[in-house]
User: What shape does this take?
Amino acid sequence: MTGPGPDPRLDSLVDTVIALASGQLDARLEPSDANDEIDAITVGVNMLAEELEVTHENLERRVRERTVALEDATNELRRLVLHDPLTDLPNRRLLVDRIEHALEKRRREDWGVAVLFLDIDRFKTFNDSLGHAAGDHLLIHVGRQLRRCLRPADTIARLGGDEFVLLCEDVPDAEAAQALAERALNALMEPVVIAGSEVLVTASIGVAVASGRDVTPTTLLRQADAAMYTAKKRGRAQAALFEPSMTGPVGERLAIENALRYGIANDQIRVHYQPLVELSTGRVTEIEALVRWAHPERGLLPPAEFLDIAEESDLIVPLGRAVLRRACLDTARLRRELGRPDLRVAVNLSARELSQRDLVTIVVEALTQADLEPGALCLELTETGLISATEATMDQLLQLKRLGITLAIDDFGTGYSSLTYLKRFPVDVIKTDRSFVSDMCDNPDDAAIVSAVVGLGRALGLRSVAEGVETPEQLAMLERLGCDLAQGYHFSRPVGVDAIRTMLIAEAPTAVA
Ligand code: C2E
Ligand code: CA
Ligand code: CA
Assistant: This one.
């Protein structure tokens, strides 16, 4: 029963509502047994408080969830901005940042900072022949292999394309940096199966070590890049240490590329020929076409000066086509003029050219235009070119062979798994690499290799050619071994078509000039 004053339950009701309103959501009222209106309100307030508390908890949880999601998104964004999405390696931005930090640390503690610029050899060819998915797969594989040969503190970044950079923040000296480059090259050499084919990856690496006080990330990267191009120029699959004489080649390369593009379009491509002598008769039965570039300022340039650039850009395709056309025209003319219908010509095809889908058309066009029979043409392929050959490439080679064109394996012995290729590809000719021939008289191992190649050729019914014959002793040894043809400075350097004509006339006095 209620007394004379105000019901004390009203006071606690007010207190509780105030507590609730000020955020103390666990405040509750104790209902009495009175079962009156105040009691009803008490129960109602408790229910409201319950509801408020639950809602609040939900809200808090949602806010917490949102915050976590936001943090994740921020991290993801940071990762995306600073990493390469394909390999998940740091990208250029993060790399530059890390180089900057490394250089700063070095300013204080006199540490050596090394940057290794790595570019996969002939990646374009690989990508063209096996497809982009396989190309991606290869890039991921390369990233992993590189990671394996670095210490956790070192950075490996992908700059895009087939370019990677390794950053080592504390190398004692340039030799140590070069040793690391060798390790990376070896790690990449392990064969890997991609898109069903065994692939052998090689790369070229440029090494730059910070020297002097005011090196910037940009200069270090540029130096390593320059050294990398030198490594490519020296024959790929190797590392080169930056030297000041290599400066500016990025600009220089681009300039060469542009000049070469212009040169191809403006008739600056020349073809020289080197005779191949049949050892049983001593006659020149074949000539090899070797490209030259008549550079307007630098004179006649050998392929070593521009072939790499042509291959890395797509210029090798129009360049190769120009050589093929010229070689077919010149040979058809020599055959007619000299009455030498047996004369053949060999044309080199680089890996990139081999993967062209319209290779057969291009070859047939060149033959038709020159009115040269297919039997007069030999295409020289390298093992490296055949490594990434796909079924489609194989098909094209078979088509060419069916037309009557001869196929040769060039530089035999310098590539990998040579015998496998001989079995797999429909070749007719093996050309033993110059390096074996040049040492065969002094080095019994090289002599054994040449002898084995000649024997192998005979067993498989292939013609064998020895390249780089420079001395009478080498020639005599090759004759003893039963090699079919020889080529080299001992007979003649590569010369222009007029000189070849003179040479052919001289060896066959009955021929009509
Ligand atoms: P290769 O196909 O192995 O050609 C033989 C190279 O060895 C030529 O160099 C030739 O001049 C040189 N040589 C020949 N005999 C001797 C010798 O007795 N001693 C020495 N020391 N060298 C000798 P070149 O003309 O500088 O060509 C270099 C390479 O460039 C060629 O090697 C070939 O792989 C490539 N090449 C040349 N022309 C073309 C072309 O039109 N297309 C493509 N894709 N590659 C080409
Ligand atoms: Ca050749
Ligand atoms: Ca060769």
Notes: The longest strand covers residues 283-295. The mean pLDDT is 88.
